[in-house]
UniProtKB/TrEMBL annotation:
Keywords for this protein: NADP
Species classification: Bacteria, Pseudomonadati, Pseudomonadota, Alphaproteobacteria, Hyphomicrobiales
Protein name as it appears in the record: NmrA-like domain-containing protein
Domain NmrA-like: 2-247
Organism: Sinorhizobium saheli
Acetylation among keywords: no
Pfam family, one: NmrA
Family label: Belongs to the NmrA-type oxidoreductase family.
Amino acid sequence: MKNILVFGATGPQANPVAKKLLAEGYKVRALVRDSAKAQDLVAAGAETVVGDMTDSASVSAAMQGQDGVFLLVSFIAGRFDMATTVIDAAVANGIKKIVWNTTGPIIPVVTGNPSIDIRRDILAALEKSSIPFVALQPTVYMENFLLPFLSEEVVEKNLLAYPMPAAVECQWISHLDAASFAVAGFKRESRDNLNIEISGPEKLSGPKIAERFSKALGRSISFRPMPPKEFGAKLPYGGNGDLVASYYEKVFADPSMMTTNVDFDRAVGALPIAPTSVEDFCRIYKEQFTRM
């Protein structure tokens, strides 16, 4: 399996997947809506084709000659028909494997949040397709801390703010590690479907995350549980802040919603990677958390 079609490759989650595939010697084709936003991929050696996940003709054309597909449906703007367009085209074009980043956990009950609830439907569509697949269920991304209004608070006030109770323990994951798990999914020789939770190597509360930031930055950082409405109001997602704030309000009411219990050893046993710790992540992005 050498030829991989990547969806969402100009976005922050799929872009590292495309680049890591290229670094590992795969031939990458990226379907993008705006080729001007894909110049970094072209420079890295990817082929880009213009299309849209809502357009079956462009999706099918992009799949010709490909062995595998990396699927990611946007959490904010994604729709179920985008996934089915890709899956149907994959069946028609004889794709050998789909690696799907679910963008979060697949919750077995209706949550009322369509961005979360469509994951169950996408999983069912993949199971029905008969194409071997790897479904990667990430926890919460460390890159959330790079949101400007959060990183600025680290810089200006030495506060690490996030809308969760201080006691919530979560296994944060980086985009880089999620990309590594995806590449490992394509390398996996078994044709059996794999539906697996993925995370970083540490289970940390808010204050423990702040301790890791303190070590990486060389100064004392404290954790601040940010009120969900404050977080939602500052999000740059145009109209989706209330939905996000509503989710985090539920987390404050029921901290178990964000507490994770991923079997990390199982994840790296099935899909071997070299994990990134929170301290590692903070060192990588040290400049963004430091007054220049």
